[in-house]
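Attaching the record inline, Q. Sequence:
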Amino acid sequence: MRKLIALLTLCTLSLSFGADLYTELLKEKVRSLPTEKAVKVGKGDKKLIIFVNPDCPHCREEWKHLREHLDKLSAYVFVLYFNSWGVKNRKKASYILCSKDKGKALDEVLLGKYDRGSIPDMSCPLVQEHIKAAELLGVDSVPYNIILDNFKVVQGYNERLLEYLGIHEGEAGKN
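Structure, as predicted:
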């Protein structure tokens, strides 16, 4: 009977504090992310960490919405490539991360500028740093977003991401 009571107590505490514990663990992991190595775009007060793939259609759709609000948003973007998506996918990730203007390169690639034709083949050690950041958080799909105000994780494209950030679609600003 004591074991049953202990088990029920543990289950109740897990339900009560589980989300808080997850958030605390996530905060610790996020604090150890090398955000200085991310592609930083935007100048706003709302803070967001994003993991993207250069060819991911959902990442691109999300980017089209986010880029209109870079006056209200500061995004730290980690770029991942997938071997299974081919050599050009890796080249796009390297191009973004080795460019002098990484924000411009990110925008160009996510808007499809390099989908046809060639893209420079660069060796970029920063790509591996971004992969390590994804591994640290257990990111296994993109887009993967962390809203830093409340550490809410939004996996996959979600039309409500701007709402979760406290940005309203009708408030488009300058990028």
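Strands lie at 39-41, 46-52, 73-79, 144-147, 152-155. The mean pLDDT is 88.

More tomorrow.
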